[in-house]
Amino acid sequence: xxxxxxxxxxxxxxxxxxxxxxxxxxxxxxxxxxxxxxxxxxxxxxxxxxxxxxxxxxxxxxxxxxxxxxxxxxxxxxxxxxxxxxxxxxxxxxxxxxxxxxxxxxxxxxxxxxxxxxxxxxxxxxxxxxxxxxxxxxxxxxxxxxxxxxxxxxxxxxxxxxxxxxxxxxxxxxxxxxxxxxxxxxxxxxxxxxxxxxxxxxxxxxxxxxxxxxxxxxxxxxxxxxxxxxxxxxxxxxxxxxxxxxxxxxxxxxxxxxxxxxxxxxxxxxxxxxxxxxxxxxxxxxxxxxxxxxxxxxxxxxxxxxxxxxxxxxxxxxxxxxxxxxxxxxxxxxxxxxxxxxxxxxxxxxxxxxxxxxxxxxxxxxxxxxxxxxxxxxxxxxxxxxxxxxxxxxx
Length: 395
Hints:
Blueprint: H1 2-24, H2 30-48, H3 56-76, H4 91-117, H5 122-125, H6 129-141, H7 144-149, H8 153-164, H9 171-186, H10 191-208, H11 213-223, H12 225-232, H13 238-260, H14 278-286, H15 314-320, H16 322-346, H17 349-363, H18 374-389
């Protein structure tokens, strides 16, 4: 009875906040994505049943986290800006950057395929060799060039849509660019890059195309279908597919309880003990300042669900306890709201790119915190450079 009362109270309060926010915030984005993910986790768990149902105290914490994620939106959108302030990028420069990034993507992916093709056991695994062996080989052969350009569709897709909605790019080339991005996202047969592809397109359409929420939700069903297709390509039986889905979607919330109980199996001494400073740890290790730091891949939980995902709250909870979880939600909500406001008001390509990445981080929040990783920091640097290249007056 207490559990259902918690759900009723939490959903009523959050539903009221959503009603206020969606009436004052235009465009599909972070609010809907967070609501879908955390609504599914919290509402779905009681119907899935043991061992995926978190304790009552954990559920109360999750509703508190959801509320803290929403609160910054009221401050960010307190005053609506009058008039328009759309950034006028130089079209010729955008086209040149788009062409450059497309060529670099083709070269990076082509180079990697040539490097690893001789070691792929295509006879034994066929196309799945890219998943079974390709990821390991890519990690071994990877270099700075590959890391920068192999999956840079997060940069060039918003450019393509920006040009399209300004009638500087035709429908045919736009579709070809989207298809090329999907191919490069799918090469390793993993779902995360394909999800990033989907959300980059959806965010670009929502911002540049000024789509309504209803139209965006309809498009999302189509754009997320490649993620499902990649999943189904693993040849799961229906029972196995459902079991994997339960572990991925609801296992993390149950495993997260082990962190609250300080029962994480991966605790040991590191030169840098902070899980939440992964991008700084990576940089410090590369500079030779430290030798070891907590890995991004978590240890498997000791029980009751065998999984190594603990939701995006894990790193800050490991470092700072329950207060760290509240801080993680508050900062993610502030960043998402700020980027949403800037993206829709200014329609700046670099802002839309990073907003798409934050939306991806929200979609992945049931697994981990993407924004503490080094790639989030490198993306910010890349977009800072692109911002200066796209300043008005440059041709």
